[in-house]
From TrEMBL:
Keywords: ATP-binding, Nucleotide-binding, Transport. SMART domains: AAA (SM00382). Belongs to the ABC transporter superfamily. InterPro entries: AAA+_ATPase, ABC_transporter-like_ATP-bd, ABC_transporter-like_CS, DrrA1/2-like_C, P-loop_NTPase. GO terms for molecular function: ATP binding; ATP hydrolysis activity. This is ABC-2 type transport system ATP-binding protein.
Amino acid sequence: MLDVARITKRFGARHALSEVSFTVEPGEVFGFVGSNGAGKTTTMRIVLGVLTADAGEVRWQGRPVDAELRRRIGYMPEERGLYPKMKVGDQLRYLARLHGLPRAEAGAAVTRWTEQLGVGGRLGDEVQKLSLGNQQRVQLCAALVHDPEVLVLDEPFSGLDPTAVEVMSGVLRAKADAGVPVIFSSHQLELVERLCDRIGIIADGRMVAVGSVTELRERDGASAVLDVHGPPAGWAAGLPGVEVLGGDGSQHTRVRLAPDTDDQTVLRAALAAGPVREFRRWRPPLTELYRDVVQAGPVAAP
């Protein structure tokens, strides 16, 4: 397990991170989301040891992350971390050797990953001559070429076309299925929702929520949509355990039900207000959850 425990980081007077905590289990894809400047990249750099936390600790398999453990982590920075004038094959073999692979194993790994990620025909090209999408594929190869035990990826899907997104998604899911903890940041929330087992939301240097999409959806109670034909205005406002989120007095009413609220009682009240054409649970997309969670602020520390 990768355990990030209450890390804090300041840059001068600016408090970049404040007691950020989360875990990533073996075989789990963890999505790390937040606005620009929220603290995602700073957190990832501390996980890698590129930056040192002012307080807190990062542990892998119960041990503090040191130089030896860092060699077993695959890291993909948001900025291009490749030598632009170096040929793709030479560069990947060089990076694999830096991670300790023998020459023959390094060559075989470069061939395997470049073929799988669709850049096998570009081994003799300089990185700077590749499209941004292919540079991104090569960057992922660099993170994978030494068969890492942990993957930490900062905006790995940036600049990729839909086909490349699917290829990269499949690679990350396959690594997780093999037991590797995978953490990546992204502004593409629809992709995060589809790919990740759990999600961490960071705002202003604080973790404001951690959990699966289902857990985030129901952290304040379940939401529901009712379609009642011709109900009187305010019909749902006085129901115990019911918070009206929108549409009270219209055909489409959205409500939030407190955890102990009997949905059948709500249904009976809706039937009394008019013919019920629909009554279903509302499952907001991650974009809406993200907005609501950030506005609501932090919950109890995970």
